Amino acid sequence: MSVILAYLIAFLLYGLIGWHFWRTKWNNPGQSTDDGTVTVGRENYVILIPLILHGYILYQSIFSGAGLSFGIGNAVSSIVWLTALIYWLSGFFFYRLEVMQTLVAPVAAVAVLLPLIFPSPQPLTYIDLPAFKAHILVAMLAYSLLTIAALHALLMAVVERRLHHPTMPSVLTNLPPLLVMEKLLFRIIWAGFILLTLTLISGVVFSEEVFGQPVKFTHKTVFGFISWSVFAALLTGRQLYGWRGRIAIRWTLIGFVSLLLAYIGSKFVLEVILQR
Does the pTM exceed 0.85? Predict the structure, then answer.
């Protein structure tokens, strides 16, 4: 009963905070300084409460017994938790990124319940291997940063479309200029791309260490390399040809969808549809 209560409290807190930020931060954003940082208000610390509770729930769910319970419910919940945590931390350094907690909080409210809805079918038993630990940690960070990049790209697409309208809602006028958002987008993609590269490398090392054979080209592996290639092409195009605007947004979203198909898609098919 206490575990269920923790899930419900975290769900309600995320929902209330999302509603609060929607009513306040979107319409009355903090004032930024010349160097791009933002003045942090007291309400920025409130999100830390459900974040801590969410992290505790994940710890209890993932390390509940022998091995590592890392099914689709725990995996998606972990990625969303890291995404929300990075957004929260970014609010201390980057102008208005913290405001996007309005979008993340409702998603986190749903994600915190996923381990209950989709429990892990069987624990992973090779968690003591250094290669596996490094692979999981780097992969979760890569997924979280590229999730942020995808949300950022979607927001840029909405702003760009609304620029042609005579009036813009306050939710959009409170955002930084498109050029500033674009510069930040590529910084996020660079960080996520580096971590994704390390994820693929550590996956190869992990396969060699555990199974004694090179990594197999499964559905997960193929889409993982496709995603890496898309982001590599985007960053190359940015450096050589100055890709920006809609081209950058489209390539970012294509790379993110490929990444979803690589990990979340394969897990969903195996665990939910095929019950493996």
Answer: no
